[in-house]
Design a protein that fits this description.
single chain, 662 residues, four-stranded antiparallel sheet
Amino acid sequence: MAKTAAMSLIELMVLKQDVYTVLEYIGKKGSFQFQGKNFSDDKKSAAEEGILDFDVQYYNEIKKACAVLDFTDFPTDLSDYNAPGEQDREEANKFILAFNELQKRLSDGSETLEKATEAYKEAMAFSNLRVSYSELEQLSFISLKLGKIPAENYEPLRDSLLNNAVLVPLGDDKSRILVASSKKGRFATDTILKEYGFAPLTIPEDFKGVPEDMLAGLRQNKEEAEKQMALLEKEKNNFAETHKIIIKRLLGNFAIGKQITQVESTLQSTELVYRITGWVPESDFPVYMKDLDEITESRIAIRKYSPMEVPSVISGKEQVPVKLEHGKFVKSFERMIFSYGSPLYGTIDPTPFVAVFFTILFGIMFGDCGQGLVFLIAGILMALKIIKVGGWNKFAPIFMAIGITSTIMGLLTGEFFSDEKLLEPFAMWVTGLFGTPHAPIIKMMPSSDPSSIIAMFSVFGVAVAIGFVINTIGLLLNIINNILLKRYDEALFGKNGLAGALFFWYVVIMVVRIAAFHHAIAAYDWIIIGITLFFAAFASPFERAMRHESPLLENGFGTYLISGVVELIEVISGYLSNTVSFVRVGAFALSHAVLDFLILTLTELCGGAGGLAILIVGNAIIIVLEGMIVAIQVIRLQYYEFFSKFFHETGREFQPFVFKCE
């Protein structure tokens, strides 16, 4: 069984002239995690001091330009980029100057268009007002107000003024309005108008509308401003297109420069020397020594420490970061582990077990040859990057694995996109090799045949047996991990220690013995069960004795007795629920077969094009909806029945420093 990857702490003493190059190497290597206290406590970062390095400024300016230019093709993998040099800075200067000139013209064009549009809207709003506004204001019984509001406030304002005033829109966008109210109610109207952002417009006393020639002139100004803005937008798009290669390269290079600056500004240092400490996988240390010696021309001092030589680790103030090393298939399951928690450093890596259990359980619960092939093909297309679904592409091996197990289970149950007939020849051939030919190999679909009932419920027995294996491996991992960590008390005693495991195993063996061989429960059965239960539930004083702690009964005999009884109930109910919980595997396998049966029945009843549509839509729903449900159930079984056996304390995930374009 593989343990977590061995780690080493390395200390680098780097001359000031080499620190930039060393940090660039570390970021590109992507396997160095800075130690928690690597940074000086009394040295503030450049950002905290309000001082920005030129590379940081260049990066920020280029990012701002990308936002204006609608540039989204940011570099994701910076391994092919380099820290910026003088040529990059000169090129960045030229680009920023050219962009600033373009942005100014864009800003001026936008402002011109806004003013022309605003003037035209103002004129249009009052183009139909042919009576002098001053004459309207002389009305003794009506108060009139002309003004502007945000267009989206028109409807709410109209509803609010329903019983107080009349609201008349002036223009098409309803941002210019005429409000007519009784003079008695004008104060209430004014209050409501203020709430909705009403801004009064100043109208000349003799104003009687806008002349047509003025409207035409304003419209022409607006149209010319729109044409000019369209040309500027086209120029902007051309600028982005012709500079896209430069933008991408500068972004990548200055992203590296920015992150080097940020790290460098927080390192412990003297006037001439920097100190860098961090965790690396032990297997990478020789490569670090060789490469760093070469790039600094031997101007570097390197020291290596094992975890138990690090004072902060010995005192328990710092956890050694945990790195898992796997091939592509098992690696795709790592996030499932880390989403629950990181294993402790130096313990057994549970990822291979999770990979096997997940694929087997999913296949049993989702047994259909055709639907399984869909997952398999989707996984292959994701692996080949033909289908791109962002971060999900890294889970392509999982899709392929569950596709294979679902396909195999479908071959056994004879289901192919809900149809039982297509795979009959295969089932007849396989079963004929071992006796009387029959189809399917395992009967899951509902049937009047009594043997099918037995076959269906035998799946529950298989599911419980798989649950026993998973629980057993979880217990073994807990025992072995505690031995590796020299926690012998936890390895021997308690619910998940050797005592609890022996109780669980003996009860299962006893049940099988009684069911299969019709043995009666003997006196020694009760003795063994009693002893194992006692050390599983009443383990506290024995654990304290092994840890050399006193007193053995920390809170007195009464408390010890009560807590022991509670723990006794917990041990029995816990193991019972852990075992019975796996019945859901058989239940989902059966429900999947029933869903296939229902789709097949509806397809046959409708027939023709309608039946074909039901077959396609029904299978699509099963693949998407039930696929998610089954995946969630399998993850739940892993978390609560497997991880709970040994994941009592989580470690610290290895998160190396890697350059990225933020």
